[in-house]
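Thread amino acids onto this structure.
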């Protein structure tokens, strides 16, 4: 079996240069790298990750910890993380930290302490019992996707600005009775919910509609949005004409509730969500789209910078959402719609 010395001899370089070309650790010119890789292929040489770990002290593995594996956002972020890690030739160890599960306790008390990874990405954690401090204390480079802390780098949507823009979209269509549905201070997503609620409240206040602010708490799920919307929409005396969902799942639940109550969307009620969930197109939902895969890719990029330079500065990357207008929103009436007025349609 061919070794690194054989590859170096065939490529006409030193063993150190051949190693750098094949592992990616250290600079090698593109021509030299290509020559070494051609030699390795010709000889059928496969680098040993165990041998590389002994030399570099690295495992070439990244740990990923997240509370849910079967929900759209987490699956998309995980896909982005995996794609980026594979591009860099790195392995992934996934930890399923479901809230309230025995496994979550074991992850924090045992598995993470073994440090069988070069860095750690935590996705969507609202750490309890000082879990964020425990993650940082592991002593490996650490990046958070959704959730932030002064002592660690984070990648997340600019949630308050996103909810403000969702609300502004309805206000521009002439809506004045706009409710915010979803989220609860006691939920697992409490911090995200709070920031999005604040964005809605700020938009309403800036428009002189602070007295019209209505928050209907619910679980951050499609059934949760359905139940909350049935509650607020079935009361004609307080029925809004516009509704901002804390996320697309809540907004879709609200659309289903409206239809079952005989309320036309968007004729009687305009609904806007946040996410661009995989079901958003099916329900023609106007939404503020985020890109979870990009968040995963960016988390890997930042983590690799911290691995390469443990003294690198903490990074907070706030990503901006993109408004996608579908047919779940319309003017409350054309005369009061800024959007209709600006297009000249009466």
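Threaded sequence (346 positions):
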């Amino acid at each position: 079996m061919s070794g690194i010395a054989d590859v170096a001899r065939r490529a006409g370089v030193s063993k150190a240069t051949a190693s750098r070309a094949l592992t990616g650790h250290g600079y090698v010119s593109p021509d030299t790298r290509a020559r070494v890789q051609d030699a390795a292929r010709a000889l059928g040489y496969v680098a040993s990750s165990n041998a590389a770990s002994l030399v570099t002290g690295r495992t070439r593995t990244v740990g990923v910890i997240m509370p849910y594996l079967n929900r759209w956002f987490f699956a998309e972020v995980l896909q982005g993380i995996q794609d980026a890690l594979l591009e860099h030739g790195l392995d992934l160890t996934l930890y399923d930290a479901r809230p309230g599960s025995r496994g979550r306790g074991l992850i924090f008390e045992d598995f993470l302490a073994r440090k069988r990874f070069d860095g750690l990405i935590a996705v969507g954690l609202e750490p309890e019992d000082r879990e964020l401090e425990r993650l940082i204390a592991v002593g490996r480079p650490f990046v958070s996707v959704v959730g932030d802390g002064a002592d660690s780098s984070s990648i997340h949507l600019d949630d308050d600005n996103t909810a403000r823009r969702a609300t502004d979209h309805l206000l521009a269509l002439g809506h004045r009775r706009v409710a915010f549905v979803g989220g609860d201070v006691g939920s697992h997503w409490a911090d995200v919910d709070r920031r999005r609620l604040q964005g809605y409240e700020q938009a309403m206040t800036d428009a002189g509609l602070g007295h019209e602010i209505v928050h209907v708490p619910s679980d951050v799920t499609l059934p949760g949005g359905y139940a909350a919307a049935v509650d607020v929409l079935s009361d004609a005396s307080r029925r809004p004409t516009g509704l901002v969902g804390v996320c697309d799942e809540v907004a879709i639940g609200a659309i289903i509730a409206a239809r079952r109550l005989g309320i036309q969307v968007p004729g009687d009620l305009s609904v806007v969500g946040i996410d661009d969930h995989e079901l958003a197109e099916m329900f023609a939902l106007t939404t503020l789209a985020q890109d979870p895969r990009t968040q995963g890719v960016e988390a890997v990029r930042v983590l690799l910078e911290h691995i390469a330079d443990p003294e690198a500065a903490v990074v907070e990357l706030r990503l901006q959402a993109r408004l996608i207008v579908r047919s779940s929103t319309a003017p409350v009436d054309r005369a009061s719609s800024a959007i209709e007025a600006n297009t000249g349609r009466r």
